TrEMBL record:
InterPro entries: SusD_RagB_dom, TPR-like_helical_dom_sf. The keyword Signal applies. This is RagB/SusD family nutrient uptake outer membrane protein. Belongs to the SusD family. It is found in: Cell outer membrane.
Length: 557
C-alpha cells in the first residue's frame, strides 16, 4: 500500500523525489551518469531546479490564479464559446473554483515538482567535487524555499523534507513561516551577486525575505478579520529592502516598458526573474494572451495571432482615470507606450513594426491580412484598421471597449481593454515560442513600494512612504514621468502598486494583504474570507488517502 502511495504521488512531486516520467530534463548524479566531468554533474543537478519556473509562470497557471482571481483581470466566454473551458476562468474570477480546477492542479503539480527537484539537487550536490557546489547548494535551498513560499501563499501549506525517500512534513501558519525564513537565511551567505536575475542571488533572497515578512500577518492568521502587522516584521521588511537599495547593484529603469522588453535580461531593475531567453525555450504567451485574434505581432508569422484572452476590469481601469485629471495615457508612462502613428504611417518596414504597449484601448491597427497572408506595399507591410476576420466577424472592428462582463454583449471579441506589457521576441520560429522577455519575480520598484508599505504599517510614516513612492514615479524619465503625489496612505499605496505592477502576478496577494479581496468588482460579489486560499487539488488529496489526516483540504472546499 505504501508503495502504491509513493507511486501515485510521484506525479505531484509531493512525497518522493523523482518527477513524472514525461519530464524532459535529466537529473544527473554520480549513480546515474558516467563519463561526466564534475562541472557537468553539478550543472546537471542545478538546471532542473530552475526548469519548472517558465511552466509555473505560463498564462494559464500562476498568471491566471493571481490575476484573474483579482480586480485586475477578467476572462469571459469570448463570443459565447472561446475560453469557455467549462467555466474555470469565470470561477477563478468569482471565487467559486473547486478542487478539480485544472489550472490550479497544474500550478500545484509544477510547484511540488520544483520542490522535489530542489531536494534532488540538495541530495546529490554534496557528493560532487566541483568548486561551484557550495553556491549551487545555496541556490537549490533558496529555490526550495521559494517554491514553498508560493505554495504557502496559494494553498496555505509548506512541505518540509530533507531525505529524498522520506515523507514530507506538512507545515502551516507560524511553523511554515519560521521554516521559510530559516531556509532563506541559511542560503543567503553562499549566494552570489554576479549571476544575473535568472538565478537566485543575495539580492533575490533579500527580496523574498522582505516579501515574506510583509505578508507574515496574512500567513499567520489567514482568515483574520483584520491582520496584525507586527512592528518587528515591518522592521525586517525595511532591513532587507535597504540591503537591496544600498547594494548599488540595481537601478530603476528610465523607460518603464524596457523592463519587459525582449532584451531585458540585463535590465538593472530586475533582481530575480524567470529566465526566458530564447535559447532556454522561453515563450511569448504572456504577450499574446490578452490581445485580439486579429492582431499579429510579428510580420514573419501570419499564423501567430492573439487569443482574445483576459481584459482589465472596468474597475481597474477607473482607478487610473480617477487618479488623473488628464487621460492616463498622457499622464503616466506606465499606462501606455505608443510605438507608431496610424494611419499616417500606413506602410511600415518589418524592422519598424513594433506594437503599442501597455493598456490598449479603442480602435486597433495592425498588419492587414487577406487569405492568410499579410498585404504588402512593395517590400513593406500594410498597416490599417483591424476587423475580427479570424473570428468570422469581418464587419466587427477590433475596437476594445471599457465595458466587459459575462453578458452576451459584454463578452464579445471586442470587449475590454487589453494588456500588452511583455514584448514579443523576434527570435521566435513560430511567433509563439522562444520568448525572450524575462518575467520579473522581484524588481527594484517593488522593493521601494514594499519599504513604503512597511513604513506606513509600522508607524504611519506617510512622509517616508511618500518619498519612496515618488522616487519610483520620478525615475521614469524616458518620457514625462507621472506627477509626484502629495499624500500617501494604504489605499493610495495599493493603487500605486496596481499602476506599477499590473499584469505581474502580484494583485491577488496584494488585495488579500490590504483587506480588499472580499470586495465587489466587475462580475464578482463573493465575500467569503475562506477563498483567500485555493483548494488543494483533489488528485493530491486522493493520492495521500492512505495516510489519514496527512493532507487536509482547506476550509470552504
Amino acid at each position: 500500500m505504501k508503495k502504491s502511495l509513493i507511486l501515485t504521488l510521484t506525479c505531484f512531486g509531493l512525497l518522493v523525489l523523482n518527477g513524472c516520467s514525461d519530464l524532459t530534463e535529466n537529473v544527473l548524479d554520480e549513480s546515474s551518469a558516467t563519463g561526466l566531468t564534475d562541472k557537468q554533474a553539478a550543472d546537471g543537478n542545478l538546471a532542473p531546479v530552475y526548469a519548472r519556473l517558465p511552466d509555473i509562470f505560463l498564462h494559464t497557471n500562476y498568471f491566471a490564479i493571481q490575476e484573474i482571481s483579482s480586480d485586475e483581470a477578467i476572462l469571459p466566454y469570448r463570443g459565447g464559446t472561446d475560453w469557455g473551458d467549462n467555466g474555470i476562468y469565470i470561477a477563478l474570477h468569482q471565487h467559486t473554483s473547486t478542487s478539480t480546477d485544472p489550472n490550479i492542479r497544474n500550478t500545484w503539480n509544477l510547484l511540488t515538482q520544483g520542490i522535489s527537484r530542489s531536494i534532488t539537487a540538495l541530495s546529490a550536490l554534496p557528493t560532487i567535487n566541483d568548486p561551484n557546489v557550495k553556491v549551487y547548494i545555496a541556490e537549490a535551498r533558496g529555490m526550495r524555499a521559494y517554491y514553498n513560499m508560493v505554495m504557502l501563499d496559494l494553498f496555505g501549506v509548506v512541505f518540509l523534507k530533507e531525505n529524498p525517500q522520506a515523507i514530507s512534513d506538512v507545515l502551516r501558519g507560524e511553523a511554515a513561516l519560521n521554516y521559510l525564513k530559516a531556509e532563506l537565511l541559511a542560503a543567503e551567505p553562499d549566494l552570489l551577486t554576479t549571476v544575473g536575475p535568472g538565478r537566485l542571488t543575495k539580492g533575490g533572497a533579500w527580496g523574498l525575505l522582505a516579501r515574506l515578512y510583509l505578508n507574515s500577518a496574512v500567513y499567520r492568521d489567514r482568515y483574520a478579520t483584520q491582520f496584525t502587522f507586527k512592528p518587528e516584521d515591518m522592521d525586517k521588511v525595511t532591513e532587507y529592502c535597504d540591503k537591496i537599495i544600498n547594494s548599488g547593484q540595481y537601478q530603476l529603469s528610465r523607460d518603464y516598458f524596457s523592463i519587459f522588453n525582449s532584451d531585458n535580461h540585463d535590465n538593472k531593475e530586475l533582481i530575480f526573474a524567470v529566465d526566458q531567453r530564447a535559447e532556454l525555450n522561453g515563450t511569448n504567451r504572456l504577450a499574446y494572451f490578452s490581445i485580439s485574434g486579429d492582431q499579429y505581432p510579428l510580420p514573419a508569422f501570419p499564423a501567430a495571432n492573439g487569443t482574445d484572452g483576459p481584459a482589465i476590469t472596468p474597475d481597474f481601469y477607473r482607478s487610473w482615470v480617477n487618479a488623473y485629471t488628464a487621460d492616463p495615457a498622457s499622464a503616466d508612462p506606465r499606462f501606455f507606450k505608443q510605438n507608431w502613428t496610424i494611419p499616417a504611417d500606413s506602410c511600415i518596414t518589418e524592422a519598424n513594426f513594433n506594437m503599442n504597449r501597455g493598456i490598449l484601448r479603442g480602435q486597433q491597427y495592425g498588419l492587414v491580412r487577406v487569405n492568410g497572408a499579410f498585404v504588402k506595399c512593395g517590400s513593406n507591410f500594410r498597416v490599417g484598421k483591424l476587423f475580427n476576420v479570424s473570428r468570422n466577424r469581418p464587419t466587427l472592428p477590433v475596437t476594445f471597449t471599457e465595458q466587459v462582463n459575462y453578458t452576451v454583449a459584454g463578452s464579445d471579441y471586442n470587449t475590454g481593454y487589453r494588456v500588452l506589457k511583455y514584448e514579443f521576441s523576434r527570435k521566435s520560429t513560430s511567433g509563439r515560442n522562444l520568448g525572450d522577455a524575462d518575467i520579473p519575480i522581484v524588481r527594484l520598484a517593488d522593493v521601494y513600494l514594499m519599504r513604503a508599505e512597511a513604513k506606513l504599517r509600522k508607524s504611519n510614516d506617510a512622509a517616508g512612504a511618500l518619498a519612496d513612492v515618488n522616487f519610483v514615479r520620478a525615475s521614469r524619465t524616458a518620457t514625462t514621468p507621472p506627477p509626484a503625489l502629495t499624500s500617501m496612505n494604504l489605499d493610495l499605496l495599493l493603487r500605486e502598486r496596481g499602476f506599477e505592477l499590473y499584469w505581474e502576478m502580484a494583485r491577488r496577494t496584494d488585495q488579500i494583504r490590504f483587506g480588499k479581496y472580499e470586495g465587489t468588482w466587475t462580475e464578482k460579489t463573493d465575500s467569503n474570507p475562506q477563498k483567500r486560499l485555493f483548494p488543494i487539488p483533489q488528485t493530491a488529496i486522493d493520492g495521500a488517502s492512505n495516510l489519514p489526516g496527512y493532507l487536509v483540504q482547506n476550509p470552504g472546499y
